[in-house]
Amino acid sequence: MAEFAKDDPAWADDACFDGAYTAKRCSVSGIDLYYTDWNPGAANVAILLHGFNVQSHTWDPVASALSRTMRVICPDLRGHGRSGWSRDGYWSAQFATDCAGILQAEGIRECHIVGHSLGVRVAIALAGLRPDLARSLLLSDGGPELANGGVAQSVRLARERAERTGFNDPGEALALYEDMHPEWRPIFRALHVRHQLRPNWVGKLVERADPELAWITRSAGRRDNAMLWALSGQIKAPVKLLWSKPAGFLNDELIAKYRAYMPSLEDVPLECGHYIPREWPEEFCNQAMRFWARQPDPT
Fold this sequence. Notes:
alpha/beta; globular; two-stranded antiparallel ribbon; eight-stranded mixed β-sheet; Rossmann fold
């Protein structure tokens, strides 16, 4: 199996993904959901679940690389990106039901489930509530519960987003993202400007996201923790967890708790920051492909 390299064209600064995927929509539980579909003819399928207050196109470089041999589905979770907003809330089980609906609409009976940050919670809910869909879980720096440092960082970032009134132009937005996330590969910052923002009625560029999502980082999000731990203990599919030691979202105590609920968990500590797919995309993709190569063929 060929390894992905640091200079892979999928995460080159000037990478272009136009025409590489099909943008699709379907309605689940009354919510209009947007998603991208890469290499739909492939037998092996992975669904990539993004983190809090981003959207499917944050995965474009990773999806481009993985789709050389896989089919890859990347949804905008409800309330995010180009998907509809919900009056009923943003509970993990609702996100999971939405994703199951997308897979059903595409006729996908089972797949590898990948989640980053908030997407980890969705992945656990999806695999726990619909074990028939889960061939494996690849989780990236998140879980049913976060360490205090990770919670504080999530709350701070949500507050900063709420306080921003918008950007005058893409260059202003890019300058802020370069300052906020110098650790990201440049292509991910460029994609963030292109897909995370939309012009509002006065011409300002504002976030494509429901402001109500902020409650996920506060008390509402914590209400899901016990359910997600319980579902973790029911998951039979193989699970691999990539986690950042420096970032502080997870720590040794939480990793031990993970292992208590998932005795067969394979965890890989990394010395990068929280945004593993955007900082080390080659490592992320290599970890994924090695993990999937060990799994049985789809039924």
